[in-house]
Amino acid sequence: MNTSQKIPMQRLEKALITFFGLLVLSLLIIFAVEPSIYTTTLAPGTAATERYPLPAILFLVALLALISVMMYGIIHHWRWLFWPIFVALAGSVIQIPVEALQLAGVLPNPFPFPTWYVLYRMGVGVIEIAFAIWMIQTYRQHGVWAMGRKKRTLDLNAVR
Predict the structure, then answer these.
(1) Per the domain annotation, does 160 fall within a domain?
(2) Which position has the higher pLDDT, 30 or 35?
(3) What's the whole-model pTM score?
């Protein structure tokens, strides 16, 4: 890998690791401040009988484990992980207008989340779209994780 490919890879890698690290921090803060958001997500329409129910804790642990695996994969440049991350981030293209329409009352909102949380998710969605654009540009210029494109080799035995 040459220097012109290494710099974009390092920038993208550091930015995604930072983003996911801040995401973990925000998940923990939201759980500490308003754990009912997790409870409402897991079982819509039910009222939580305790402040920190076990299903919400298990859901948070599963999210943290998934994000940890993704961060590990980014650090180790797992080529296959590039595309699932890209698809997940690019999916925010749908999330932002839907949440805006729900706030405006045009679409029904199945989850009665606080307004601050919906606005926060919309802000995170904008950041996710920016990352998706950055990832596709990096891919088009330098390949997955800016590591260069896999070169196809001609197998002479297969030709015979």
Answers:
(1) no
(2) 30
(3) 0.78
